[in-house]
């Protein structure tokens, strides 16, 4: 007898009795690299994960508005809008409104292949220590992030790196005085003029100076309770009242008894 040889390809070796088995082939072109922090994100929906993957695979300048995405996929505008908000919340996407010279308002969308918070943290860790700078205070890093993020609330508050560094000490002063960052942002972004803002740094500097709150008052000194006096006792020698923690004789009787 001759041995029978199978004509089909060999099956991949199964490593587990259940669950997924991977058959991986290397990609040499036309591929996109995404991290497991996105592919296995515990708080993102599958729609958001798939949408982030699609956006990261697109060439620069590709429109990714809600209507443009809804024209490609069957999920519809409501689900796509919700997925975009998820990606913004978790730092994979940022959308800011910008006013063009023509007066038209447009939305600039930035996609991050790593969460934005992780990029900021990595930049802070890799930055050289600057302990010799007098303005290097604990709230300094928080102040620069707050100022750089103002454009997400109003695109007219777009600041240069030089403006951010110049205004950071003033914001740090607010934070040092116990003002929450959300309150600082609200002060800087509420009630802005309707017309274009030509000098956003000057406007912010004025608000930070003119509306600077006072320092928190020092807590009142804790009242010290005076010690309670010893109770009154009746002297066993002369029946005179005297103060003592325990019954017995008064000081004079004790002295007379000692002399005797």
Oligomer: single chain
Shape: elongated
Beta content: 5-15%
Structural class: mainly alpha
Strand order of the largest sheet: 1-2
Amino-to-carboxy terminus distance: 134 Å
Mean pLDDT: 81
Number of strands: 4
- Spell out the helices and strands N to C: HHHHEEHHHHHEEH
Your description of this structure?
- With 260 residues, the chain is mainly α.
- Among the domains are: 82 residues, Orthogonal Bundle (Arc Repressor Mutant, subunit A); 85 residues, no CATH class.
- Helix content is 38%, strand content 8%.
- The protein is built from ten helices and four strands.
- Helix 2 crosses helix 4 and helix 6 crosses helix 7.
- The radius of gyration is 36 Å and the shape is elongated.
Features:
260 residues; mainly alpha; Arc Repressor Mutant, subunit A; two-stranded antiparallel sheet
Give a short overview.
It is built from ten helices and four strands; from the N terminus they run H-H-H-H-E-E-H-H-H-H-H-E-E-H. With 260 residues, it is mostly helical.
Blueprint (SSEs and pairs):
Layout: H1 36-39, H2 46-56, H3 66-70, H4 76-89, E1 93-99, E2 105-111, H5 116-126, H6 140-148, H7 161-176, H8 181-189, H9 200-210, E3 232-234, E4 241-243, H10 251-259
Antiparallel strand pairs: 1-2, 3-4
């Amino acid at each position: 007898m001759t041995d029978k040889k199978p004509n089909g390809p060999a099956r991949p070796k199964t490593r587990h009795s259940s669950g997924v088995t991977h058959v991986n082939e290397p990609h040499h072109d036309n591929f996109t690299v995404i991290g497991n922090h996105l592919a296995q994100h515990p708080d993102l929906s599958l729609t958001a994960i798939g949408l982030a993957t699609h956006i990261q695979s697109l060439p620069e300048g590709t429109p990714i508005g809600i209507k443009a995405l809804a024209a490609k996929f069957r999920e519809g505008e409501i689900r796509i809008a919700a997925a975009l908000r998820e990606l913004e919340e978790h730092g994979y996407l940022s959308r800011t409104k910008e006013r063009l010279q023509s007066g038209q308002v447009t939305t600039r969308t930035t996609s991050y292949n790593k969460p934005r918070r992780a990029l900021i943290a990595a930049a802070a860790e890799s930055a050289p220590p600057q302990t010799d700078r007098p303005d290097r205070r604990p709230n300094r890093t928080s102040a620069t992030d707050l100022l750089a993020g103002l454009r997400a609330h109003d695109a007219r508050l777009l600041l240069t790196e030089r403006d951010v560094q110049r205004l950071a000490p003033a914001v740090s002063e607010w934070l040092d005085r116990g003002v929450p960052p959300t309150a600082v942002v609200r002060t800087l972004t509420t009630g802005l003029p309707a017309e274009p803002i030509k000098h956003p740094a000057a406007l912010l500097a004025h608000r930070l100076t003119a509306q600077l709150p006072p320092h928190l008052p020092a807590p009142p000194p804790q009242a010290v309770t005076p010690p309670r006096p010893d109770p009154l006792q009746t002297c066993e020698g002369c029946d005179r009242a005297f103060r003592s923690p325990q019954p017995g004789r008064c000081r004079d009787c004790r002295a007379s008894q000692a002399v005797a």
